Amino acid sequence: MLTVTDLCAGYGPVRALEGVSFTADRGRVTAVLGANGAGKTTLLRTVSGLHRADRGSVELDGKPLDRVAAERMPALGLAHVPEGRGVITELTVEENLRLGGLGRAGSVDAADLDRVYTLFPVLADRRAAVAHVLSGGERQMLVIARALMARPTMLLLDEPSLGLAPRIVAQIFELLRGLVESESLSVLLVEQNARSALSIAHRGVVLNLGRVVADDAAEVLAADDQLRHAYLGF
Ligand SMILES: Nc1ncnc2c1ncn2[C@@H]1O[C@H](COP(=O)(O)OP(=O)(O)OP(=O)(O)O)[C@@H](O)[C@H]1O
Ligand SMILES: [Mg+2]
């Protein structure tokens, strides 16, 4: 379980997070929703050690993450897929995947690769192709698969649906749901596409100007007309 308590962070005078508290349960998808500039990306970057909090704490299964450097996070079970599908385009699909296993304890073996190829057959077919030739949806699958190579217990995803066709988004979300159920993976899913995110999430946390304005079961949020119109855009 990820526990975020009274988290405050910003960029100089800009306050991006102001006292954010919530939990993301084990084996659950927790959606983080809110308009542009609400603080979603800053939240993920602060949890994963890429941005420094001014105040507050983050714990993963009771262990404090506050002073842990970003590069040590995979060894503790936390993987972060940032916005923007950053694959190394000159390397092959398989070489990109192998990089994903570097941060964790133990070396990458064939079983690790087989596992992600079973989850993403499209990547298995293209394992020897340079990532440069992949489509947007395939790249998004590759960055998620690369994160899974570290065998995380907690996966942070920043806008995986951005710019993808609805069919591909549905495919990726379906796969995430399967992983959460079969491997008791926990996912913190940042999305602009609130309707899709709430369709696979168990819970949702809604941010506005760096503060939590709602935190409830996904179906409760999806049924709240006022909240949807004010913050979720659907
Ligand atoms: N590097 C930065 N320097 C200064 N201000 C920043 C920086 N990054 C983000 N901010 C500001 O912090 C606030 C929160 O931004 P953040 O990127 O976390 O929002 P977001 O919810 O992810 O938005 P989006 O949906 O557009 O991705 C915004 O006011 C933004 O302008
Ligand atoms: Mg963002």
Structural notes for this entry:
By secondary structure, this protein is α/β, with parallel strands linked by helices. The chain has one domain (2-232): P-loop containing nucleotide triphosphate hydrolases (Rossmann fold), CATH 3.40.50.300. It contains nine helices and ten strands. It has helices at residues 40-47, 93-100, 110-119, 121-125, 136-148, 166-183, 194-200, 218-222, 225-232; strands spanning 2-11, 14-24, 29-33, 55-60, 63-64, 78-81, 154-158, 186-190, 203-208, 211-217. The strands form two sheets. It has a six-stranded mixed beta sheet, sandwiched between helices. β1 (2-11) and β2 (14-24) form a beta hairpin. α2 (93-100) runs parallel beside α5 (136-148). Keywords: Amino-acid transport, ATP-binding, Nucleotide-binding, Transport. Belongs to the ABC transporter superfamily. It holds the Pfam family ABC_tran. This is ATP-binding cassette domain-containing protein. One of its GO terms (molecular function) is ATP hydrolysis activity.
Task: Describe the secondary structure blueprint for this structure.
Elements: E1 2-11, E2 14-24, E3 29-33, H1 40-47, E4 55-60, E5 63-64, E6 78-81, H2 93-100, H3 110-119, H4 121-125, H5 136-148, E7 154-158, H6 166-183, E8 186-190, H7 194-200, E9 203-208, E10 211-217, H8 218-222, H9 225-232
Parallel strand pairs: 3-8, 3-9, 6-7, 7-8
Antiparallel strand pairs: 1-2, 1-4, 4-5, 9-10
This protein binds adenosine-5'-triphosphate (ATP) and magnesium ion.
Magnesium ion (MG) binds at residues 40-41, 83.
Keywords: Amino-acid transport, ATP-binding, Nucleotide-binding, Transport
InterPro entries: AAA+_ATPase, ABC_transporter-like_ATP-bd, ABC_transporter-like_CS, BCAA_Transport_ATP-bd_LivF, P-loop_NTPase
Family: Belongs to the ABC transporter superfamily.
